[in-house]
Specification:
This protein is an alpha/beta fold. The chain has 6 helices and 7 strands. It has a single domain, classed as Rossmann fold (3-Layer(aba) Sandwich). Strands 3-2-1-4-5-7-6 form a 7-stranded mixed sheet, with helices on both faces. The chain binds S-adenosylmethionine.
């Protein structure tokens, strides 16, 4: 197991990404084509920046990536890729929508790898993760254009089914994804929802 984790850690270093979590997005992108060239992408909980950097390469110079995180961190962009606007903001705050809409009114893709600060209590952590994921869905419903896609991390557990069902009501297709690069012992899964408003 540890060997597999070291593999992703080393690969991220070699590929110049600040975090191994990039492969949880790359795997899903290769299989499901969540993003396409020219897309506007909103990446929630973006620091230390791997997903935003990967998204910028994927959507290319005609696209744009907006990364939002509570913490300041990565500020770089990549030559030949999409511009990245790095915002320091709390997704739970009301005015975050206005800050994000100053850059683009609507987005094609919303990504969220947000993780709550873990307390050590499984139930509390899972409830916090769900509260954040519910907020991400609310933001996606406001900010996605019709036909847009959402890829959001959530800790599986009690109330997860109710959460997934609420996403199914507003997207055409919904899949629960557990990437190979996600630690098996972790309860994180990703909800991939495609075709916003096309139900
Ligand atoms: C697992 S990290 C994201 C890693 C990132 N996808 C990458 O590949 O580099 C989770 C991030 O969620 C952020 N976060 C947690 N709660 C947040 C909130 N309420 N608003 C914005 N960001 C939040 C944390 O600060 C942390 O940087």
């Amino acid at each position: 197991m540890r060997k597999v984790q070291d593999y992703y850690f080393n690969r991220a270093k070699k590929d110049n990404y600040p975090a191994r979590s990039v492969y949880k997005l790359e795997e899903a992108q290769k299989k499901y084509r969540i993003m396409a060239a020219g897309n506007a992408v909103l990446d929630l909980g973006c620091q230390p920046g791997s997903w935003s950097l990967y998204a910028a390469r994927t959507v290319g110079p005609r696209g744009i990536v907006v990364g939002v995180d509570l913490q300041e961190g990565q500020k770089t962009t990549i030559a030949g890729a999409a511009d990245i606007v790095w915002l320091t903001a709390d997704v739970m705050a009301e005015d975050t929508v206005a800050s994000v809409q100053k850059i683009r009114k609507k987005y094609r893709v919303v990504l969220s790898d947000i993780a709550p600060r873990t307390s050590g209590n499984r139930w509390v952590d899972q409830q916090q993760s769900l509260a954040l994921a519910r907020r991400v869905v609310e933001l996606a419903a406001t900010l996605l254009e019709r036909g847009g896609n959402l890829y959001v991390k959530v800790f599986e557990g009690e109330d997860f089914k109710e959460f997934a069902d609420s996403v199914r009501k507003i997207f055409k297709t919904v899949k629960i994804v557990k990437p190979k690069s996600s630690r098996k012992e972790s309860r994180e899964v990703f909800v991939l929802a495609m075709g916003f408003g096309e139900k």
